[in-house]
């Protein structure tokens, strides 16, 4: 049996393997054909004539790639679909977090009010607090005790400010009087 007839022979392996891609040379243009450096060919040297032009055009084919490929369009559609599908749940999550913080603040407020009411309830149940409040607010006296009431002094400064305020009319009355005076043609100075 010959090498060609045997399965697994060297010739069969050579035919089934993929062709090797030549390695790029140092200074080569990325994505360009192997062996090109990205520098324009120097004129005067190398191939000349029709053969030189054909060789140059074969070495550098000008293939214009479309800016938006099919894969990029599909990727953009998938990204938009994911963004659209996540937009509503994210918005609901943010709204629920906001509502949760509002409810937490309301709960804290209600608990503070509850503690305040509980403290007031304890005070009302205390008989000493009731007597003290009756003496202070309602001026009650215990039976057999002498109570004195000292009147609060009148504030002299408060009455003078009241008379001063009544002497100058409010700004809107002054404004209205000036409008009426302008309408009738009267002047306040004469």
TrEMBL record:
Keywords in alphabetical order: Cell cycle, Cell division, Coiled coil, Membrane, Transmembrane, Transmembrane helix
Biased amino acid composition, Basic and acidic residues: 1-17
Biased composition regions of type Low complexity, renumbered to the chain: 50-60
Coiled-coil segments: 93-123
InterPro entries, per database record: FtsL/DivIC
UniProt region (Disordered), positions on chain: 1-65
Gene Ontology biological-process annotations: cell division
Transmembrane regions listed in the UniProt entry: 72-90
Pfam families referenced in this protein's UniProt entry, alphabetically: DivIC (PF04977)
Name this protein carries in UniProt: Cell division protein FtsB
Lineage: Bacteria, Bacillati, Actinomycetota, Actinomycetes, Streptosporangiales
